[in-house]
Amino acid sequence: MRNSLKISVAISMFFLASCVDKMTEEEIAQIGITSCRKPASFIKQIELDPTISAFSTSEVRMKGVVLIQFQKIAGDTTNKKIYQDSSWKQFGNMGSLTTDDNGNIYTAPLPVVNNLDFPISELNKIYKIDNLTGKLELFFSLPKPDTTVEIVPYAVLGVYFDCHGKKLYIASVSGSTRDEEKGVIYVIDINTKKIIDQLKGYDAAGVFVGGTTGEKRLYFGSTRKPNVYSVALTKDGKFKNTEIKTELTLDQLGSRGSDKARRIRYDKFGNLIIYGVEFNYSLAAQTNRLETGYQFNYDETEKKWKFFKTLQ
Amino acid sequence: MKSVFTSIIFLVFISCNSSNTDSKLKAKNTDKQNAIDAILIEDSSVSQMPLMVERIKKIKTVLAEKKPIILLDSLDESAATAQQIAIADIKFCENLFDKKTQQPFRNEVFNAYAARPQEVPSNFQNEKIYKVEMYNYALNLTTTALVNVNNKSIVAVTSFPISQPDIPSHLKKIALQIAINNPQVTKALGYKPEEKEALMANTKTALNNTKCERSLHLCVAPTFIKDNKALWVIVDLTDYKVVGIRWTNVGTTEAPENRISERKLKFEKIMECYCKKISHLEKYNWKLNYVITTSDGMRISEVAYNDKVVVNNAKIVDWHVGYSNTDGFGYSDAVGCPEFSQAAVVAVSDPKVSDIIEGGKTIGFALEQSFSSEQWPLPCNYNYLQRFEFYNDGKFRTAAASLGRGCGNNGTYRPVFRIAFTGNKNKFSEWNNNTWKTWDREQWKLQNSTTTYTSEGYQYKISNEINEGFFIEPSRGQFNDKSRGDNAYVFVTKQHIDKDEGEKDLVTIGPCCNTDYKQGPEKFIEPSPESIVNTDIVVWYVPQMKNDDTKGHEYCWAESYLENGVYKTKVYPCMGGPMFIPIKNN
Fold first, then answer.
1. Cα distance between residue A222 and residue A206, in whole Å
2. Which of A136, A221, A298, B412 gives 20 to 30 Å between its CA and that of B6?
3. Distance between CA atoms of B195 and B530, rounded to whole angstroms?
């Protein structure tokens, strides 16, 4: 009797889980292509046009986050307007950016040349620009590294908000050393501000959620090797398992031949666009930041991403 | 006494295999061991080879021509026609000269061939289309032209920055000759190899697309197989020299996991040999250990003269670079290991030991380490030299130089030296009013025009209870190193056993642009200076070197210039740092 109850409970839970995780083919195919992101409400209040404005953390000689309004003609960078709220620079240099479905912007500290702005132990944090107030504030503190000995001078290298599961994915290399890959990819529920899942043991930079291969997967660019890996996700954005798949490599591609994937996105056709940079876990900065775009197309027959071309 | 920065000879490349601790590793035929066994080569004597003499002569002849392009010969009629049409095209030739100086670049046609079907535009499928590929060595730029040989017209011209075409056979021959005539290659193989033994030198690399990513030069890698290993010889065809050699294990798969590139060769060698292990050096009367740190440059330690330890350790914790015309603009650079470090400017070569010669006599030796930004000498990139000099008479110098180029001509470089002396009964004294005045408490002082020195040029001394120790002689340009003087801040702090004030690797200690004494060490003095009498003492020394780009007076500067059609770098170092002279007690 007790056994049969257990079995029926287990069956019920299985169906419940299956139901919760059920996604249609069309739904999966749109993951990473259909965007939910909205421009922040405060942009209109500062009299900038949100349709031609973009946030940046890499403006020369400007710390933190800036909002740039470009000219309406694509590629015209003359007379661009740059706006920076005083709170956007108070925490120092920032790195990867992502926007959620309400227009909130998430970013994280990124040391440039040195760790003067943030001690290494204080790097593992996420900051948020509120879509209404336009103020940058601490959003979430990730676990501090358990040692300060020989650890890399970086922490969060990638942030990405998935419009499908409404989760924030964060790639952090905090606490990693040359001999030990201790990076973690966190899944954060932005409403509850809680870590709902994590994948340990992977140093990564670019993170992205896509579904054009027929599966909802998190793609992440390793910072140890010039490879992009993936892991399956559930409908609500948790890791389905810990089976890591090697999707593609940038090895020997481009002018440097060993780029690490800093940013991963789909183009409008569902091809993977990988933005690669040199990364050696040092703070060596380059005047002319050399970044190459690589396009990979999915071969349905072989079920593989295949290199198509570099983007000029 | 003169130091002899400019009279370095007998350069010694240190092998990190000399230590006994390597014997276990050596037994294991691992990739790590291959990295350790790699040899980085910074000079080469290939220029006198007949093939090279001929090549240089040809380059010089072509550079004097109206169109400085080395053309392919022995082409068939169609390919020759395509080459002629291409080099007559304005767009194809738009990068033959430096646009500022109008000096010629070294340009060479690498290939002219019937275009492959996928290279021919759809509306030219029925035409006789040839492709001509030209390489610009100075700009590391490939320009291609699609030529319609039927009607002798250009179909398309495209330029590809930072890319190289496949090399022609005559360059393959040059690469092989450079490789097989290199003494390090002969030594590594145990015999002088033949050309035919090298594999696949006509690809950009030996087995795959390896790069010279740092120099952005055209490199090929002739590879020699011996037993179950492959010796990669990276040959730079822009400068005609061997960059370095490294063994790899020959795997069973077609594409070996470990492809060797310039960066991999250098970084792994430096990491394994000098960052992960402490090296030991014994020379003349001196013994010391050294290591490249993650953020404090090269650190020497346990420095002994005549078997007596005199310095616990010495290093440079930061380089502060401030620019005077922009308030607060500059950089605070840590220097150190090329990977997994807090270094902004990284080690890219082996440490080097050289004799110091004066009047034909060896009077000591120097230990040097260079650190460089990847794109140096482009603006806003940096190159630093750390140099320790050890003399036979017991004196030593901790020195450092900036080799430019930085972000402007109004920069001031402030390296922050930290020197921890041995002994726990030390005191620090300053020459003042013709007498030595002891500093009772931690403090700092600036060397300036009113500073007084002993007749020998000493400003300070550090001594123990029996007056053993060193006089400190700041640079006022007397060390024959073209220095314009240190204008240095000196800080003296107490060495604590129970708390770390820089004994371990220090992350960036101070901001870029303070022009006053706030260079970082003051953090260990203020707000309550401690007693520094009869105790362990640390001396911090911060020279200030202002750069100069005035023609003929360059200082802390670097310039690119064209030689034989490719860019070379001329450097104007500014050297700073004090001499420590042993106190002789009668």
1. 8
2. B412
3. 69
Rounded Cα distance between B217 and B211, Å, is: 8
- What is the crossing angle of helices B169-180 and B50-63, to 10°? 140
Reading the block at residue A17, the tokens are 């889980």
DSSP B325: T
The CATH number of B277-582 is which of 2.60.40.1120, 3.40.190.10, 3.40.50.12280, 2.70.98.20?
Answer: 2.70.98.20
Q: Where are the domains of chain B?
A: 17-49+168-272, 73-161, 277-582
List all residues 6 or more positions away from A295 whose beta carbon is below 8 Å from its beta carbon.
A267, A271, A272, A273, A274, A307, A308, A309, A310, A311
Residues in chain B with CB shorter than 8 Å from the CB of A177 are: 340
Give residues with Cβ within 8 angstroms of A15, minimum separation 6: none
Domain boundaries, chain A: 25-311
Nearest-CA residue of chain B relative to A152? B340
pLDDT tens, B441-496?
999 999 999 999 999 999 999 999 999 999 999 999 999 999 999 999 999 999 99
Model ipTM value: 0.86
User: Which residue of B163, B259, B374 is in closest CB contact with A286?
Assistant: B374
Q: Which residues, listed in sequence order, are joined to residue B225 by a DSSP beta bridge?
A: B230
Q: Let me know if the fold of B73-161 is the same as that of B277-582.
A: no
Residue of A nearest to B328 (CA): A61
Residue of A23, A20, A2 lying closest to A164 (CA atoms):
A23
Residue of A nearest to B507 (CA): A115
| A123-158 residue pLDDT tens | 999 999 999 999 999 999 999 988 878 899 999 999
Q: Tokens standing for B345?
A: 């400017």
Residues making up chain B, counted from first to last:
586
Residue B256 pLDDT: 45
Question: For A44-92, how does the pLDDT look when each residue is reduced to its tens digit (9 = 90+)?
Answer: 888 888 888 889 998 877 889 999 988 776 666 666 788 999 999 999 9
Question: How many angstroms away from the CA of B338 is the closest CA of chain A?
Answer: 7
Q: What's the pTM value of the predicted model, to 2 decimals?
A: 0.88
Per-position b or e across A17-56, b if 16+ CB within 10 A of its CB? eeeeeebeeeebbbbbbeeeeebbbbbeeeebebeebebe
Within 13 A of B29's CA, how many CA atoms are on the CB side? Answer: 9
Classified as helix, coil or strand, B525 is coil
pLDDT tens-digit readout, B261-312: 898 899 999 999 999 999 999 999 999 999 999 999 999 999 999 999 999 9
CA–CA dist B577, B476 (Å, integer)? 10
Q: Residue B36, exposed/middle/buried by CB under 10 A (0-12, 13-18, 19+)?
A: buried
Q: Chain B residue closest to A179 (CA)?
A: B340
CATH fold group of domain A25-311: Neuraminidase (2.120.10)
B96 vs B106: CA distance, rounded Å? 8
Does the distance separating the beta carbons of B511 and A282 come in below 8 Å? Answer: no
Interchain pair A255, B162: CB under 8 A = yes
| Residue written as token pair 């509306």 | B123
Which of B271, B373, B378 is closest, CB to CB, to A284?
Answer: B373
Give the integer Cα–Cα distance in Å for B580 and B565.
Answer: 45
Among the listed residues B564, B572, B581, the one whose alpha carbon sits nearest the alpha carbon of residue B55: B564
> Helices (DSSP H) in B115-259: which residue ranges?
169-180, 183-189
Q: Distance between CA B545 and CA B556 in Å, rounded?
A: 8
**What is the CATH class of B73-161?**
alpha beta
**Contact yes or no for A116 and B339 at CB 8 A:** no
The Cα–Cα gap between B391 and B396 comes to 6
Whole-angstrom distance, CA of residue B464 vs CA of residue B533: 9
